[in-house]
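Researcher: We plan to redesign the surface later, but first we want a full-length starting point. Tokens attached.
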């Protein structure tokens, strides 16, 4: 990624920098690779990044939206996503949020429990509407990723257990104000092994065959998202391997001509186009280590503190030929406010600009004002 350093030097740090050219190239690759089947539909998982310019760019590319709150539904509509391409997921939808979705006539609710199904039916009846619902099935597939972002195991809070899905399908048929749209699955995030998606297909295929054998047609299959990115070498792999991703489902999902497959990609769409740019406040010589203390903190990018996540760290302005090993840390009064340990950088000095790469997903959107620090601003390449 090329950084306009002549502009950066005049800006207050920290800030998120978004390369819209890379975002557009990523969206173009998604659309090209998803065209492998006329029955594939791609939705953007809005929770990854709701920056208005980023959202508008994605909506312009023709993707739908996957939302997990009423606020995200409103953000999607404001950014130009058509309501008929919006899906609403989430394990704890409130009545207010459900009514927002009903009022906007969204495409579908991804339903995660029997009580939720009954509440949607009741609220839809009060409005004289019929809500389309996809039942989120917990397929008990372990995606072998970080435990905090795995969602498809039997012990996870998400979805309806496979053992009772037949009963829930029957319940939908008895309710007057909901209509079975399809089935929804999601097994986790930052998945790089396509065999995890093969295992998901191996769970989906017999389940749908069993349901359809009872005369119930499943027209829509939502396989979630979860495709990961290369955090270690973002310049070598700026765009994820969408060909392998869509190709896996094309080969392993037993899709019938009348069935549509929905994908909900988040991180894979936006992560590589975003960078957190910060400035060195001090270089501190410890008894054992050297610390680069920057003006960005865990309130600006919480992933390293929350997940132990790795982000590549670069010094954008040092001209030194020699390098040193540092711990790169923030100013927040928490020992977990660390972006990287034992990071090799060119010899670094106060005032240098530091880039924390691959921060376009779950970066700005998860920022807080902890320690009464202001939210980071955003800078757009255009």
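Model: Full-length starting sequence:
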């Amino acid at each position: 990624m090329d950084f306009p350093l002549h502009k950066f030097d005049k800006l207050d740090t920290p800030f998120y920098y978004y390369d819209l050219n890379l975002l557009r190239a990523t969206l173009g690759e998604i659309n090209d690779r998803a065209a492998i089947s006329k029955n594939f539909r791609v939705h953007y998982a809005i929770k990854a990044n709701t920056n208005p310019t980023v959202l508008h760019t994605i909506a312009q590319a023709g993707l739908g939206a996957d939302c997990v709150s009423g606020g995200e539904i409103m953000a999607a509509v404001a950014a130009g996503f058509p309501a008929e391409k919006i899906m609403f997921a989430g394990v704890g939808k409130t009545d207010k949020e459900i009514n927002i979705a009903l009022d906007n006539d969204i495409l579908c609710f991804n339903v995660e429990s029997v009580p939720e199904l009954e509440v949607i039916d009741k609220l839809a009846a009060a409005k004289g509407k019929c809500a389309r619902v996809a039942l989120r099935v917990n397929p008990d597939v372990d995606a072998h990723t970080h435990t905090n972002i795995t969602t498809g195991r039997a012990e996870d809070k998400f979805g309806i257990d496979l053992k009772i899905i037949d009963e829930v399908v029957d319940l939908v048929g008895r309710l007057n104000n909901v209509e079975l749209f399809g089935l929804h699955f999601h097994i986790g995030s930052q998945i790089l092994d396509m065999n995890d998606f093969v295992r998901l297909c191996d769970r989906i295929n017999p389940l749908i065959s069993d349901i359809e054998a009872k005369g119930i047609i499943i027209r829509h299959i939502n396989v979630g998202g979860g495709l990961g990115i290369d955090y270690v070498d973002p310049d070598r792999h700026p765009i994820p391997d969408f060909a392998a991703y869509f190709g896996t489902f094309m080969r392993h999902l037993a899709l019938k001509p009348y069935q549509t497959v929905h994908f909900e990609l988040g991180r894979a769409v936006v992560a590589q186009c975003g960078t957190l740019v910060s400035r060195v406040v001090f270089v501190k010589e410890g008894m054992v280590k050297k610390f680069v203390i920057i003006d960005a903190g865990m309130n600006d990018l919480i992933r390293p503190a929350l997940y132990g996540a790795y982000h590549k760290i670069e010094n954008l302005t040092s001209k030194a030929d020699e390098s040193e090993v540092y711990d790169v840390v923030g100013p927040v009064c928490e020992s977990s406010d660390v972006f990287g340990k034992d990071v090799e950088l060119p010899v670094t000095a106060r005032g240098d600009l530091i880039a924390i790469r691959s921060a376009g997903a779950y970066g700005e959107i998860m920022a807080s004002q902890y320690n009464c620090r202001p939210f980071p601003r955003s800078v757009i390449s255009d």
